[in-house]
Amino acid sequence: MKQKDVIIIGGGAAGFFAAINIAEQRPDFKVAILERGKEGLTKVKVSGGGRCNVTHAEFIPSELAQNYPRGEKELLGPFHKFMTGDTIEWFENRGVDLKIEDDGRMFPISNSSQTIIDCFLNEAGKHDVEINYNHSVKSIQNKSEQWYLETSQEVFCAKHLIIATGSNPKVWHMLEDLNHTISKPVPSLFTFNIKDNRIASIPGVVASNVEVKVLETNLWSEGPLLITHWGMSAPAILKLSAFGALELAKRDYKFDIEVNFIHKSYEDCLAELKTLKYDLARKTVFKFSQFELAKRLWHQLVLASEIESTSTWAELNKTQLEALANQLSKAIFHVDGKSTFKEEFVTAGGINLKEVNFKTFESKLHNNLYFAGEVLNIDALTGGFNFQNAWTSAYIVAKSVTK
Q1: pTM
Q2: Which residues, in sequence order, are bridge partners of residue 9?
Q3: Looking at the 3D structure of the chain, how many domains does it have?
Q4: Which domain range does residue 327 map to?
């Protein structure tokens, strides 16, 4: 049996971050990471297309917290203790400079996730963190204020146990045996599958500022929308998928959305179209895009309004103007399924947040049992927010364990 002071299950971002901070603050502690795979930090490696989206340039705790469909209220306090600025400083102090991109995402200047991986491995080595690969945990028991863990290779024992496994059903089942409640996992970040003639021939087209509603619900979002080979993506859709994760799962990912491509009401749109009918009377409707829409998208919406490609504005009748206003401001699309967003595997679900003390990230049911990262029922929008949750929770866990 291996005796340790702290055992961390999970060799991902939160696990390494917690281990390094604990070892730095308490050099006398024996800290071990148990990773079921042959290597750790695999999600770090693929994040941001291999560049690692470390965090997001949002420096106000209340604003940052709004990017978490599950966890917004719980993370507000922790973000006052450790957030974006602290993350930037932490990495800079260890030789990793970050840069801010136009959309607020932050990456290492090297543009390589390997920079973050090397930083973690170097710091872990420097502070004698023991990393055990190919150690799948078989059981977790608590006896006499000690945690006993049997892995596929040996048995470990420690006073402090940190769970940082992400969305791992096997570990969730073990935590259920310890009387913790698990919120059922469902996908949280996905694109919409849509087969529709209006968009079938125009993949790659972007509408820069749309509103999207899921009909028969209160779900809506706004932002850029990307038309893809399989349907729709980009922030307007991804935000909707994250905040609507539970509701859309109930509907088996079959539902209707209403898209406002021009961010104007139907009435305002129709009024502007009537003005265009006179101002552009001799011009061909199809030929000249309006409302700053991409030309290919404009073409499809015009044709969907049963307007001939040769028709002039003066030739449009009332029915055609109303049809075009509908297509521009409240077009209905049927969603039939979902697709994973790039390499981002984000899940809503995990440890019930009511069972965690968010001042310490310690279990309310068991002393010296802590949680960090996505093992909790916390998830975020794309853009570095899930990693910021990992850094914040792991840092506070480290502070709690070493106090």
Answers
A1: 0.91
A2: 34, 163
A3: 2
A4: 190-340
Q: What separation in angstroms does the CA of 322 have from each of 277, 283, 325?
A: 12, 19, 5
CB 35, CB 135: distance < 8 Å: yes
Whether 7 and 109 share a structural domain: yes
- How far is C-alpha 142 from the chain's CA centre? 33
Q: What's the rounded Cα separation, in Å, for the pair 157 and 176? A: 20
Distance CA 287, CA 295 (A): 8
Which residue is listed with tokens 């390094």?
20
> What letter does residue 294 receive in the DSSP assignment?
-
Looking at residue 104, its amino acid is G
Please report which helix (H) or strand (E) contains residue 161, including its range: strand 155-163
What is the gyration radius of the CA atoms in the chain, in angstroms? 25
Identity at 281, one-letter amino acid code: A
pLDDT tens digit sequence for 64-114? 999 999 999 999 999 999 999 999 999 999 999 999 999 999 999 999 999
Helix residue ranges, H only, 57-168: 61-65, 72-81, 84-92, 113-126
What is the spatial distance between Cα 21 and Cα 85, in angstroms, rounded to a whole number?
17
* Residue 167 and residue 43 share a domain: yes
Instruction: Report yes or no: 106 and 91 within 8 Å, Cβ to Cβ.
Output: no
Contact (CB, 8 A) for 357 and 378 = no
Tokens 């310490």 sit on residue: 360
- β-bridge partners, 274: none
Sheet strands (E) in 128-179: 130-132, 137-143, 146-151, 155-163
Question: Same domain for 326 and 355?
Answer: no
Q: How far is CA 304 from CA 28, 32, 218, 274, 281, in A?
A: 70, 61, 27, 18, 21
Statement to judge: residues 142 and 264 lie in one domain:
no
pLDDT given at position 343 = 56
Which tokens is 135 given? 């150690």
Rounded alpha-carbon distances, angstroms, from residue 27 to 31, 124, 126, 130: 9, 12, 11, 13
The encoded tokens of residue 304 equal 């969907």
Helix (H, G, I), strand (E, B) or coil at 311: coil
CATH number reported for the structural domain that contains residue 387 in this entry: 3.50.50.60
Same-domain pairing of 9 and 82: yes
Query: In which residue ranges of the chain is pLDDT below 50?
Result: none
